[in-house]
Amino acid sequence: MIIAIDGPAAAGKGTLARRLADEFGFAYLDTGGLYRAVGLSVLRSGGNPADAGAAEVASANLDLALLDDPALRAEETGNAASKVAVLPIVRSNLLDFQRNFASNPPGDATGAVLDGRDIGTVVCPDADLKLFVTASAEVRAKRRYRELEERGLEPEFHVILTDVRERDERDMNRKDAPLRPAEDALLLDTSNLDIDAVFLRAAALVNEHRSPQ
Ligand code: CDP
Q: Which of 31, 41, 96 to mutate to test the pocket of ligand 1 (most atoms within 8 A of CB)?
């Protein structure tokens, strides 16, 4: 079974995807991590993430060790990720890795959960279940703020909110694979739901969409 979870920055896709994968014994791929790794690699080499040349090289030789780098989760890396993600060559360089993961999940997993921006529309258009997880920009910025605080950082709320809005704008308006719900995606607005409530709803949907075993 393939589950596609898409939505804007800090909507809670990652937490939901991880819990679903645990619950059903599926493998989980955070596709945003791949774009973050490309962005981080460009930043580390002193390049500009909006520069197609540097991002092309980084995405063609993806350094998977960067997925475990503490700097992967920094706001600056998220911003760089959304800049490299605009480039069609970067997206196509990352496509095979994502599709392979979905059709041949590692270990003995009987399914895969992928989260990102274009999983239901581009990466896995035939996914068995597509969820589009969203929440208001303010709620998402609050969640990101708390997440950064818990990591011992001292974030500024207005900076986070501006960042979330800028990223939404860039992700929704790019030409290649813009952020939007697939036509057959189910919408989950989590503005007024905590993670347990979101998880219970999503898990019920997985059970409904599972082929009988
Ligand atoms: O964790 P957060 O929601 O902040 O972002 P992320 O999922 O780590 O993704 C970082 C950036 O990568 C996004 O802002 C997108 O621009 C890009 N991305 C994408 O274009 N396509 C995907 N499938 C996943 C991420």
A: 31
